[in-house]
Write the structure tokens for this entry.
Amino acid sequence: MDYGIEKFSSEEIDNERLFKHWVASLKKINVSYFHPKVSEFNDEIQERKKTEKYSYIEKMPWDLRLEQERKLGIARSFSHHPKINFLEINVSEKGLQNAYLIANQLIVGIEKLGGKLTPTWQSETPKLELSPLSFRFIITELTKRRKLVREESMKPNYGRISSGKLKLELIFDSSQKHYTYTTEDKNFNNQLEDIFESIRQEYILLRNKELEKKRIRALEEKNQRLLKENQKLEEEKTRIQKEIDEAQIAFKREVFIHKEKLEELLEIKIYTEKLKQVYSGLESLDKIEQYIDKVNALYDFKNFVEELEWWSNEVADLDDKK
């Protein structure tokens, strides 16, 4: 049973007016129905009371014990081992119902906000969680000083007795802040807005811190990515520059090769011209000219020019990469 309480989105928790209106709806919660965790706690309390009430039976001889159990209608053994007190409620019988009411309101309220009560197997100390917020709630009873007069002494003694007033403590893990509310002036129902407002404020504070951490972490990750990308770009730039430098050295070497080729071509040209002059007017000139044609085909200026043109284009492409 959820008493018809609407869920409240944590995305709207910054809206104080809407939040207070929703908190007011929690006042519909009463003790006619316990939250399962409160009900479990109450069952444990009742079992303890029953155990304490009839604990004297365990000290009786076995036959008398069985007889007493039949008379009292008890059909079980009192070797009961108490469970872990997973709700931190320590009040008198008189204050239990009011303690259960605020416990119900806190647990149901947090669940309707999307949170939960931590499982008891994780820790003996229960906590309400509204991620990333986590806190304990402790309900105790205030005491008051009372003067006691003993018959054998005229001097008064002082002790502390239950005042009937309750105290609620909220202890937040993130900030170690400690909020305390009591029923000395007004009951918890009339302080519900203040109680949940402290939870809201702590949630917003921690959420904003977590968001800022995420923002800084995302920025750092982005900077790391940019740094790595810049490093890769620098490495690529260095690699390309190295290739350019190596290519330039190779092109420079080829200039000397061109020079040597030109000198060789000019030397052959002079040779073939002299050869033609020597055999000019002789019958063997035709054979000599055939020879000269073969030599010129091997040492062709046209091929040399095409080689120079290709070299010039390669150098131009290299200049574009700089």
